[in-house]
Amino acid sequence: MTFRLSRAASPRVARPLLVVAAVAVLVGLALLWGARIAANRFIYVSELGADGEPTAWAFRWALLLVAVAALIVAAEATTLRSRMRILALITPSVSLLIAGSAFALASQITCTSGCPLPVGDSFTWQDFTHTVIAVIGFAAACIAMLQVATARDHPRLARYSMVSAVVVAVVSGAGGILSLARFMQHLGGLLEFAATTVALLWLAILAVALFAAVPSWASVATGCASPVSDRVG
Q: Which of 64, 45, 85 is nearest to 176 (CA)?
């Protein structure tokens, strides 16, 4: 796959940052699954960070790592554009910026014990705030996937992003419906973890793809990058 690189991009800075982003996502994902296994029960992702949960520390660190990764990728993906008019209203970078900011907030504003739905007698402003922020973050990440899936000139990344977006939408949608219906919530929790895993792996692969598109500092210094199109890969 090829990317048109910004002339302002510095390989000396971009390459290590993208490595940090990819590693941060994978460490965050490992923390989430480690916490899920340690919980030893069917549980939704946000419940890992609920008040009083022994896994709360892992949840907070996992979301912070994912937030940092999303912000780094957002800064380095400024050249990506969707070819669909409605998705092109904002860039994938903006969507990832929103997602990263939301995840950072959600890591600090967690839900109350049991993570009840913020409706009726179980309503609390803490649960409502966490739920809204988490939904905004996940929705922004899904929009970023669709934007990259319809990006110009990047067919392989676009195909992978489209598959990821469809899987995340279907799986998380099913899990969300089960959660709202309070039916088979054990299955809903597993579906949410599956959707989260796919989404985070997509972010890590996007970071790797962007890394591969950045010429090494040595090649830039010796003038090996294409002087005509700035395309690499």
A: 45
